[in-house]
């Protein structure tokens, strides 16, 4: 493995020697990696390589999968997220997630954003909530397109707008980490470009990890790339290095289209 | 190396490498023929070198077009990307080498018979080394052979020494035989052309090394070893 991050501050999230099992089947083998605010990290690899499984262990989305078991340490600000004392609802607010298919609630645009802040008690008044909603929609790059129809249903938006609404919904609860699982695979190129631009703008404020099948997208949006294969982290490094001069043959064969 | 899942990509890469090889072969021939024309005072051969240069230029244009197409349509990555970029840069260099060979050929008719100019005897040997460097750099590209590329770079000083020696010999000769100054000036330019060919072969070898390994050769000193 090449080029582990060498920042002086402790990493926002760190995984150390993580193994994940689904029943008897091991999906992740001894993966160690750090995720931080100053760079977007892309997880790439063929289907079934474990990249989505690994992403989901970072906010315990795998807890709901029967038979799923996680070994090793995953820390958020140094705190083990699998510790029994960890409040999982709180964890998922701090580590937000955006999915492949836009999944807005069947509610108004306003309520999609306001839902999280309400249940997490982030707003004391309607005015507070208005501010949170506007701010989240602005950061999601959606405000100008929806400000005059906040009462319309979120599901009435276009696919790209819905995905930005979902990102706004994740942002509204002031997360520290945003996990994205193929956020653009259902979107057209223009909507994709808007999400990518948004990722670029959110970088620095949040630690962002993105799973993508589109290697050009990984190359465009990330500063670090991790290549997974058969449940192992084969290579991790600076994105421009990985795409011009990967050290591992498996990485090279995959990114040049020679895999399999 | 395993094949690409998309076979057409392999075909395009192979066609690209084939065009570079063809262009390189033509340039090697151009240099050999230009030197033969010089030694044998063969003006017809010299003219052919000049007219054949057009084909080298056309091949360069074809490679450039194919490289742009591959980058646009295939989005090459890693070693593929390095191969394609190296091919683009190499044909630019090869085209320049072709121009130097053409320039040597153009001087042949202006030299007339010159059996008496003694330093001329060193030029074919110098051109031989430079020509081998060009050939080896092209072979290194074809075989992705980093060691061969390094060996080319290591040989550049031989051509430089030849040049320095010929430069001094021609200066002395001109002082002693002022009537030959015009011819000697042409020979000096020819020596300089060959020296530049050696430099270009070295550049080419550096690109080949990068394409093959992904790393750059350690920076060589800025001092080129050329006295003038």
Automatic annotation (TrEMBL), chain B:
GO cellular component: cytoplasm
Localization, UniProt: Cytoplasm
Keywords, alphabetical: Cytoplasm, Phosphate transport, Transport
Keyword Amino-acid biosynthesis listed: no
InterPro entries: PhoU, PhoU-like_sf, PhoU_dom
Location of the PhoU domain: 21-108, 125-208
Location, primary (coarse class): cytoplasm
An individual GO BP term: negative regulation of phosphate metabolic process
Keyword check for Transport: yes
NCBIfam families (alphabetical): phoU_full
Assembly information from the UniProt record: Homodimer.
UniProt record similarity statement: Belongs to the PhoU family.
Functional description taken from the UniProt entry: Plays a role in the regulation of phosphate uptake.
Protein's name according to its UniProt entry: Phosphate-specific transport system accessory protein PhoU
Lineage, uppermost ranks: Bacteria, Pseudomonadati, Pseudomonadota, Alphaproteobacteria, Sphingomonadales
């Amino acid at each position: 493995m090449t080029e582990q991050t060498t920042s002086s501050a402790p990493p926002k999230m760190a995984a150390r020697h993580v193994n994940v099992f689904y029943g008897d089947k091991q999906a992740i083998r001894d993966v160690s990696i750090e995720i931080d605010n100053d760079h977007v990290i892309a997880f790439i690899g063929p289907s079934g390589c474990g990249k989505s499984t690994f992403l989901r262990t970072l906010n315990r989305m795998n807890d709901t999968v029967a038979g799923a078991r996680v070994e090793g340490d995953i820390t958020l600000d140094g705190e083990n997220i699998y510790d029994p004392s960890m409040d999982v609802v709180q964890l998922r607010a701090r580590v937000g997630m955006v999915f492949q298919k836009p999944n807005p609630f069947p509610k108004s645009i306003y309520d999609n954003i306001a839902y999280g802040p309400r249940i997490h008690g982030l707003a004391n008044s309607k005015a507070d909530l208005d501010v949170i909603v506007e701010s989240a929609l602005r950061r999601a790059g959606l405000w100008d397109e929806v400000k005059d129809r906040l009462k319309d249903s979120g599901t009435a938006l276009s696919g790209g707008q819905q995905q930005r609404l979902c990102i706004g919904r994740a942002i509204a609860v002031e997360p520290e980490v945003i996990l994205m699982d193929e956020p653009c695979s259902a979107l057209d190129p223009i909507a994709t470009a808007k999400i990518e631009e948004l990722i670029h703008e959110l970088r620095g404020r949040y630690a962002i990890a993105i799973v993508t099948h589109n290697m050009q997208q990984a190359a465009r949006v990330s500063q670090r790339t991790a290549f997974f294969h058969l449940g192992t982290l084969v290579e991790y490094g600076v994105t421009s290095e990985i795409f011009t001069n990967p050290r591992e043959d498996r990485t090279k064969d995959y990114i040049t289209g020679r895999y399999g | 190396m395993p094949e690409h899942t998309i076979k057409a990509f392999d075909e395009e890469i192979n066609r690209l490498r084939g065009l570079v090889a063809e262009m390189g072969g033509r340039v090697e021939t151009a240099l050999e023929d230009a030197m033969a024309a010089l030694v044998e005072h063969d003006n017809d051969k010299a003219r052919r070198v000049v007219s054949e240069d057009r084909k080298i230029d056309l091949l360069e244009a074809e490679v450039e077009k194919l490289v742009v197409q591959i980058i646009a349509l295939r989005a090459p990555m890693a070693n593929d990307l390095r191969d394609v970029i190296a091919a683009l840069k190499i044909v630019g260099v090869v085209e320049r080498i072709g121009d130097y060979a053409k320039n040597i050929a153009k001087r042949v008719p202006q030299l007339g018979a010159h059996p008496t100019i003694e330093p001329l005897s060193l030029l074919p040997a110098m051109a031989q080394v430079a020509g081998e460097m060009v050939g080896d750099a092209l072979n290194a590209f074809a075989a992705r052979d980093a060691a061969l590329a390094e060996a080319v770079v290591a040989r550049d000083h031989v051509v430089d020494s030849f040049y320095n020696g010929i430069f001094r010999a021609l200066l002395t000769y001109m002082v002693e035989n002022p009537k030959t100054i015009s011819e000697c000036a042409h020979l000096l330019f020819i020596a300089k052309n060959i020296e530049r060919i050696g430099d270009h072969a070295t550049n080419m070898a550096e690109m080949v090394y990068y394409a093959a390994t992904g790393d750059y050769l350690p920076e060589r000193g800025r001092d080129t070893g050329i006295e003038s």
